[in-house]
Input
Amino acid sequence: MRTGFAAIAFFGIIAGAFSPETRAESVKVEAFTFVVPDGWRSVTPSSPMRKAQLEVARGPEKAEVTFFHFGAEQGGSAADNVARWYAQFPGSGEKRTTENVQIGPVKITFAMTEGTFNSGMPGGPTTPMADYALCGAILETATGNVFVKMTGPNAVVKASTEAFKKMISDAAKGAAPKA
Output
């Protein structure tokens, strides 16, 4: 009888240690580990250039979060990328917000805007997506910038911006050297 209770207790502890509530999904890009927010899910990247990709669903609408790292001195500066991201939303000038944050040695540039998103590869054909939004972040490091970009329907992106910023900030804190 005692053995039965001990086995049940043991397996209960083991099951609890591996329950979904205690295991956070994460993606690693360069020195950063990004903990995937609740309700978001990791999906197979749709391009080999993407280091990771997440899907954010709110009802039937979905946004995507893409992660890029090209190596040291590759992929352009934070300012160049923010300008390119904003250019994908023509006419959104008054709705653009750029924030610079320093977390330990990591400089982060956040970029947000909304409007019609011209989806597609730079220099290639684009598809206009009305009522879309962008929340992006660039984490600057000596081994090359990490670019994280969430685009999707305005309502989904706006509802997910706080979780996005927390994911980015927490990854920067985790990568910062401990004092």
Remarks:
- The chain has one domain: 25-175.
